[in-house]
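User: Once you have settled down, look closely at the record that follows, taking as long as you need, and be ready to discuss the fold:
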Amino acid sequence: MADNITIKVTGVKEAINRLNKAKKNVKEEMSMSVYRAALYLQGKVREDIQGKTGTRSVDTGHFAKMTYAKKTGTFEAVVGNDLPYAKYLEYGTSSHFVAPKNAKALHWDGFFSKGHMVGGIKARRHFGNTARREKANIQKIIQNNINKAGRQQ
């Protein structure tokens, strides 16, 4: 006659709940790490606009102040600037003709013009150049935050 051995496993539900919670916490931390990296990049772009690492684009400081980082999805964030002239500073403009709209002539510093060619604005690439320059640091921020979340479980 064979002896019956009974094994009772307790705490299965609790273990599954803890694993599910850990999974959720890691996912949330991964999402937040992307946003933290965007905030880091925002600061670096502002420094670049202020001339600390690239071509200075500061007159009043408004362009730098209006640069933002925003979470746009679970694992997405954007660093941008919605000022109407932001795209012209980033990508530049070509030579073009400037003509008066509300008067017969343009007037500045004692000069008048019924219209004339202007050379355009050279692209400053604050966002693109800074993102390329900081790519390794951004990856480290995300990886370090994910590693930290994994150790806390």
Notes: The mean pLDDT is 87. Strands lie at 68-73, 76-80, 96-98, 106-108, 111-113, 116-118.
